[in-house]
Design a protein that fits this description.
Blueprint: H1 2-26, H2 33-40, H3 45-73, H4 77-95, H5 100-112, H6 117-126, H7 133-158, H8 164-170, H9 172-185, H10 208-223, H11 227-237, H12 244-269, H13 271-291, H14 295-323, H15 329-358, H16 362-378
């Protein structure tokens, strides 16, 4: 039994390390990203919402394309290391940008780097069984968030000694390590399933439950605007600019610590129950931002936000993989990411417009309504757990 699981778990650990280093680099700049755009580059909230929403929309398109091509070409590895390399180049581009419009092409490159996600998640799913898939996806998200926490700590320390452009340039280094790990230590795996079975996807060809799941995910994504709004909200509520990265650290630390427990919980209780709990946590964050005036309680809300992400992200991807035929996992993951990504552009853009015109409370009210709609749609999705097992060569 040990022989059957040793190699797959080694691959999971390497993917986890690559994710750790890439997120370390990303989150060296993410805590100061909204302040950099709105303060240093003098952009308004609508511009910030556009940049963040554009980034998520590009994520969706890049993941849909890479998922489709990965299944069609039956290749995974090239998409993964290329995605990390895009992160390296984009951060160097941010370092030389002088106005917010110059950020646009590098934002495109940065988010196009997500071509790695669907093929990587498909490989993680292939390396897993029904008994440990939630745990493995939880581990991946835990490593993501652990890298983010390390990056935030680096940001908090370095921002006091170097300027932001140098910080952005240094943030490219950890992602170079991720490229090395994938290129050198990961062997490409032929996707599960018989050869030449891939025929592509259309909306009609998707299972009805999966289409309903996409609708529920889309409704939620329309209200799940960028974390940048939470950080700007905290800044306007009275937190000092130097403390804003600490709030981001609390969020990522909570997400890192609890991703594996929530993944394991979904293995035991089912995906839908944990997903509903993530919705409840997000609703609590929105209500808190509307009602709370205490800075201490608002700090607690950022921990709740981390718990929400820990419960949401591993379960969403795990459930998609279990709905998909093994040979089409990357395509299903790409379709899912495309759905939520295309909803993210209007979500953040609309949130920015509502914020500028009607005040900072209105986006949270709209998000509460859309979360309720998503919960209603999710009730119509049947949860059918697969009971696969890994073959000896896996």
């Amino acid at each position: 039994m040990k022989i059957r699981t040793e190699k797959p778990q080694r691959g999971i650990r390497i993917f986890g390390l690559a994710s750790f280093f890439n997120d370390l680099g990303s989150d060296m700049i993410y805590p100061v990203w909204p302040l950099f755009i709105t303060v240093t580059l003098k952009a308004n909230m609508s511009a910030l919402g556009f940049l963040d929403g554009l980034g998520e929309a590009l994520v969706s398109l890049s993941q849909a394309l890479s998922g489709y091509l990965s299944d069609r070409w039956r290749k995974r590895k090239i998409f993964i290391w290329t995605g990390y390399l895009c992160g390296v180049l984009s951060r160097l581009g941010y370092a030389v940008s002088a106005v917010w419009t110059q950020v646009l092409p590098f934002r495109v490159l940065d988010r196009a780097g997500k071509v790695r996600s669907a093929p990587r998640d498909a490989m993680v799913a292939d390396l897993s069984t029904d008994r440990n898939r939630g745990r493995n996806f939880g581990l991946m998200r835990a490593m993501d968030h652990a890298g983010a926490a390390a990056g935030i700590l680096a940001c908090i320390v370095l921002v006091n000694f170097i300027n932001l452009r140098l910080l952005f340039a240094l943030a490219a280094v950890p992602s170079l390590i991720s490229v090395f790990l994938i290129v050198v230590l990961i062997k490409d795996r032929t996707p599960s399933g018989p050869d030449k079975i891939f025929k592509g996807l259309s909306l009609k060809s998707l299972p009805p439950d999966f289409r309903t799941y996409l609708a529920a995910s889309g409704f939620f994504a329309l209200g799940a605007f960028s974390y940048s709004f939470l950080l700007i909200f905290a800044r306007e509520a009275g937190f000092k600019a130097g403390f804003v990265p600490v709030l981001y650290l609390l969020y990522t630390a909570a997400a890192s610590i609890f991703s594996i427990p929530f993944g394991r919980l979904s293995d035991r209780l089912g995906r839908k129950k944990v997903l509903y709990f993530s919705f409840v946590l997000w609703a609590a964050v929105c209500l808190g931002m509307i009602l709370v005036r205490s800075l201490i309680l608002m700090t607690v809300l950022f921990i709740f936000y981390g718990l929400h992400k820990a419960a949401l992200e591993p379960v969403q991807r795990t459930w998609v993989c279990e709905m998909a035929p093994a040979e089409l996992r990357a395509s299903f993951l790409g379709a899912y990411q495309m759905t939520i990504g295309l909803c993210a552009l209007p979500a953040s853009l609309l949130a920015g417009i509502l914020w500028d015109r009607f005040g900072r409370i209105v986006p949270f009210v709209l998000s509460l309504a859309l979360t309720g709609l998503a919960a209603l749609a999710l009730a119509f999705v049947k949860e059918m757990r697969c009971h696969d097992s890994m073959s000896p060569h896996q």
